[in-house]
Specification:
The complex is a heterodimer of chains A (about 725) and B (about 190).
Chain A: H1 7-16, H2 20-39, H3 46-59, H4 67-75, H5 79-92, H6 103-111, H7 116-129, H8 132-146, H9 151-167, H10 172-175, H11 188-204, H12 206-214, H13 218-231, E1 239-240, E2 243-244, H14 246-260, H15 264-280, H16 286-301, H17 306-320, H18 325-338, H19 343-347, H20 350-355, H21 362-375, H22 381-394, H23 397-414, H24 418-432, H25 440-450, H26 455-468, H27 473-492, H28 505-517, H29 523-539, H30 544-553, H31 560-576, E3 619-624, E4 627-635, E5 642-651, E6 657-665, E7 671-674, E8 689-697, E9 706-714, E10 717-725
Antiparallel strand pairs in A: 1-2, 3-4, 4-5, 5-8, 6-9, 7-8, 9-10
Helix pairs in contact in A: 1-2, 2-3, 3-5, 4-5, 5-7, 6-7, 6-8, 7-9, 8-9, 9-11, 11-12, 11-14, 13-14, 13-15, 14-16, 15-16, 15-17, 16-17, 16-18, 17-18, 18-21, 22-23, 22-24, 23-24, 24-26, 25-27, 26-27, 27-28, 27-29, 28-29, 29-30, 29-31, 30-31
Chain B: E1 2-9, E2 14-19, H1 25-40, E3 49-51, E4 62-68, E5 71-77, H2 83-101, H3 106-111, H4 113-123, E6 124-125, E7 128-129, H5 134-151, H6 157-166
Antiparallel strand pairs in B: 1-2, 1-5, 3-4, 4-5, 6-7
Helix pairs in contact in B: 2-5, 4-5
Classes of the chains: A alpha+beta (about 725), B alpha+beta (about 190).
């Protein structure tokens, strides 16, 4: 059988594949070749085959049949075989496969091998994927290697020990004697991994932590090493951008943090060195900032003196002004953690933090927002709120809900005056009204109720707000409630805080009815509106009849909630109304009031809505074989990417069209939502219509186009038609 | 602790995939794809830290990445690692690759996947940082390569031997030696290459 191809050949071949299918085919062919090669127990080429297998594994193809081969490679005498075998074991095996236990003996032998690189491979593998059984068996060997003078092996043994401790915590004691001399090493690699090992032990066991603090005098040792690093001047092997082994410095600082936490003596012993590092470190490159950052975290976590803490926060403040966005991010994260404990110190940097609200980076903006809310207090509320409201205006939608909630909370806690409070709430409702959380509405209503002297002002402002646009549900709900409650103040023009407006009762009812009818209002909002209309019957004098008519219409509403309310209110009218003998109207005899679509099939084809946004002309979308479909449009001013189309289908032939189904499709950049139709029969002779609502989302403001499909039964046969609608008026999508 | 180290190119093709915590194969590939999509969306003037995707780790894990020419180097770490420190570590790793491969480019990573794994093994072991001194790492790699070469390397000896023999420059041996002619042609022995 020909020699298996080399790894490089395989890679080259796979790269020529132009499709996923071609690649898969090549790989399958190669896998078959490899499998037969494995079966032949070919020792020479096994390493080559496993290398290829690992490459294919990285691309995502199954490679488990190579697991046993890896073990055979590990058992081989050649270094090359062992190297690829161990790599394969680390990538393909884990403790869930029983196969891995077979490695234990090989690893044990290799830990005692004469070549240090083989020993290194064994330590590496054990440290990556050794199971608890393996660790238990081999811990002794690892401990021995921890004491060797060979620095290459010693550093690997240290990390391997960390893994062993993680898998089998009871073995920690065993490594304790070996740690005594670890910090006397000159080799930085060993020092680094030793600090990692000590950190692991201190974090896992409070006893160990206490032991290291008292008996081993670990803190002075670490301080000494750190001092040497800072003072030692230029050392080419460990230099990174002019700083001596920053990785080791950061590790040591982290260990110092653990040792100094909640311990006065240790904290005191490290105060000086921390101050020294904080003031002497070069900040022009990232490495210097990494060290400073770690120092700051340590200072904040241990029991440091207040001068040191202020120094730390000032460093963070300087970070905030840094051009590097990573540093700003890191600074904001740390400030968030410390704002509770060192509030005053963080306050000094408030203006910089507020500037970060205008940053382009989303992660930075989020942190700046959270931090800003944490910093709001009675003194800075006006200034902060201005910034936060500006932020609410311009931020991404994912922030608006949190920001709105935060503003409400802050306003509630620190509002300097009632008027300011109401103004702020109004501002939030009008700019981000659709993002306000549902539970905020009752809270706001409660707030408004409690500020008695502001009722007239509030209701006037709310009325003005929804006059222009009533698509933002929370705003409309609050406004509807207030109008219902304080409508009498509104029409009597009693406002003191600002210029009172002239409003008639009919105008108020107009707006509430528009809310009721609009397709953009949710069921909850309609409930609010209906209740408000009802309440006005006791506050208004001239329009009570109109109110009664509106309320009774909804007595047959499809929406159960509305129906129940309407029926109950109606009953109240009948019971307590002594003055109106001709009370109850019948629905069909009131054509002037705009009817809701779900009630009436029998009405002639008059336009169903008073278009909300300044009269978008309606169009005839389809007219053929006696079937005519008209589109009427509604758009919201604050959310102009939504267009609500109401279709009306009418039939001028002499027979009904039954099982009528209307379907629509739009181009890819649009989104479509089709609500349920009023019925499935288009009655003959234009005696009735089917209405259906379509909501179109058009974020890119592209020209609206639609393809429609109509299916229905007419004169005993099934009819079907496809059509394109291209005559949308520009106002419906621009 | 470092949970995973991923290197992929601008189109999402994996060039190095190393997990320090066990995931089943399909999940591994999913993680690579998800990470690629998260990282691709990032602008160049945004910070290099990302909250991790839903598959890898939980709220404690961050993705720290750096973009070099056509490759993304992504380290998934937990809160025990310093974010700025990991940025430096990625730089050290890439500079080490540069030293080992002489002006490293994506093709080097593609064709020498095993060597890249070995280099990584000298820098990070079991999810923890082992060595950060570039010269040290390069020296160790050189020593191990020499060891491999003396055994014949991954390609295994036989192929080398055959091609070596094929390439020997043998001198021209004349077919007819005219012994009658006293002027014996002495062949010009050229150097063995």
């Amino acid at each position: 059988m020909p020699a298996p191809i080399r790894l490089r050949e395989l890679i080259r071949t796979i790269r020529t594949a132009r499709t996923q299918a071609e690649e898969r085919e090549m790989i399958q062919k190669e896998c078959a070749a490899i499998r037969s090669s494995f079966r032949e127990e070919d020792n020479t080429y096994r390493c080559r085959n496993v290398a290829k297998l690992l490459y294919m594994h990285m691309l995502g193809y199954p490679a488990h049949f190579g697991q046993l081969e890896c073990l055979k490679l590990i058992a081989s005498q050649k270094f090359t075989d062992k190297r690829i075998g161990y790599l394969g074991a680390m990538l393909l095996l884990d403790e869930r496969q029983d196969v891995h236990l077979l490695m234990t003996n090989c690893i044990k032998n290799d830990l005692n091998h004469s070549t240090q690189f083989v020993q290194g491979l064994a330590l590496c593998t054990l440290g990556c994927m050794g199971s608890s059984e393996m660790c238990r068996d081999l811990a002794g060997e690892v401990e021995k290697l921890l004491k060797t003078s060979n620095s290459y092996l010693r550093k690997k043994a240290a990390l391997c020990a960390v893994h062993v401790i993680r898998k089998v915590p009871e073995l920690m004691e065993m490594f304790l004697p070996a740690t005594k001399n670890l910090l006397n090493e000159k080799n930085h690699g060993v020092l680094h991994t030793s600090v990692v090992l000590l950190t692991e032990m201190c974090e896992r066991s409070p006893d160990m932590l206490a032991h290291f603090r008292k008996n081993e005098k670990l803190v002075p040792q670490l301080v000494r090493i750190l001092k040497n690093l800072i003072m030692s001047g230029y050392s080419p092997e460990h230099d990174v951008s002019g700083i001596s082994d920053p990785f080791l410095q950061v590790r040591i600082l982290r260990l110092l943090r653990i040792l100094g936490r909640n311990d006065d003596d240790s904290s005191e012993a490290m105060n000086d060195i921390l101050a020294q590092v904080a003031t002497n470190t070069e900040t022009s490159k990232n490495v210097g900032n990494a060290i400073l950052y770690e120092t700051v975290l340590t200072i904040m976590d241990i029991k440091s003196e207040s001068g040191l803490r202020v120094l730390a926060i000032n460093i963070l403040g300087r970070f905030l002004l840094n051009n590097d966005k990573n540093i700003r991010y890191v600074a904001l994260t740390s400030l968030l953690k410390t704002v509770q404990t060192d509030h005053n110190a963080v306050q000094r940097h408030r203006s910089t933090i507020v500037d970060c609200l205008k940053d382009l980076d989303v992660s930075i903006k989020r942190r700046a927002m959270e931090l800003s809310f944490a910093l709001v207090n009675g003194n800075n509320i006006r200034g902060m709120m201005k910034e936060l409201l500006y932020f609410l205006d311009s931020c991404e939608p994912e922030f608006k809900a949190d920001c709105a909630s935060g503003i409400f909370l802050a306003a509630e806690k620190y509002a300097p005056s009632k008027r300011w409070h109401i103004d702020t709430i109004m501002r939030v409702l009008t700019t981000a009204g659709s993002y306000v959380r549902d539970d905020a509405v009752p809270n706001l209503i409660q707030l408004i109720t409690n500020s008695v002297e502001m009722h007239a002002y509030t209701v006037q402002r709310l009325y003005k707000a929804i006059l222009g646009d009533y698509s933002q549900q929370p705003l409309v709900q609050v406004a509807a409630w207030c109008i219902g409650e304080y409508g009498d103040l509104l029409v009597s023009g009693q406002c003191e805080e600002e210029e009172p407006i002239q409003v008639t009762e009919d105008e108020v009812l107009d707006i509430l009815e528009s809310v009721l009818i609009s397709n953009m209002s949710t069921s909850v909002t309609r409930g609010y509106a209906l209740t408000a209309i009802m309440k006005l019957s006791t506050r208004f004098t001239c329009t009570v009849n109109r109110i009664k008519k509106v309320v009774s219409i909804y007595g047959s509403s499809i929406d159960v909630e509305l129906q129940q309310r309407a029926v109950e209110y109606n009953a109240l009218f009948k019971k307590y109304d002594h003055m109106a003998p001709t009370a109850a109207p019948t629905p069909a005899s009131v054509p002037q009031i705009s009817q809701a679509p779900f009630l009436l099939d029998g009405l002639s084809s008059q336009p169903l809505f008073n278009d909300i946004t300044t009269g978008i002309p309606s169009i005839t979308a389809y007219s053929k074989n006696g079937l005519k479909i008209e589109f009427t449009f509604e758009r919201s001013n604050t959310n102009p990417s939504v267009t609500v189309i109401t279709i009306q289908a009418s039939n001028s032939t002499e027979l009904d069209m039954t099982d009528f189904v209307f379907q629509a499709a739009v181009p890819k950049t649009f989104q479509l939502q089709l609500l349920s139709p009023s019925s499935s029969i288009v009655p003959a002779f234009n005696t009735g219509t089917i209405t259906q609502v379509i909501k179109v989302l058009n974020p890119q403001k592209q020209q609206l186009r639609m393809r429609i499909k109509l299916t229905y039964n007419h004169k005993g046969s099934a009819m079907q038609d496809l059509a394109e609608v291209n005559n949308f008026p520009p106002q419906s999508w621009q | 602790m470092i949970q995973a180290i991923l290197v992929f190119n601008n189109h999402g093709k994996p060039r190095l995939v190393r997990f320090y915590q066990r995931f089943p194969e399909e999940i591994q590939q999913q993680i690579v794809r998800e990470t690629f999509h998260l990282v691709l969306k990032r602008d160049d003037n945004i910070c290099n830290f990302l909250e991790g995707g839903s598959l890898i780790g939980g709220s404690d894990y961050k993705l720290i990445y750096r973009h070099y020419a056509t490759l993304y180097f992504v380290f998934c770490v937990d809160s025990s690692e310093s974010e700025l420190g990991i940025l430096d570590l990625i730089q050290v790793f890439v500079e080490t690759l540069d030293k080992c491969f002489e002006n490293v480019c994506e093709l080097d990573l593609i064709f020498h996947m095993d060597k890249v794994h070995y280099i990584l093994q000298e820098v990070v072991m079991g999810g923890m940082v082992l060595e950060t001194n570039m010269n040290e790492i390069v020296a160790q790699m050189d020593a191990q390569s020499r060891l491999e070469k003396s055994e014949g390397g991954l390609s295994a000896a036989p192929a080398r031997a055959v091609s070596a023999v094929k390439n020997i420059n043998l001198p021209e041996i004349p077919r007819n030696i005219n012994i009658g002619d006293l002027n014996i042609k002495v062949p010009n022995l050229s150097q063995f290459v």
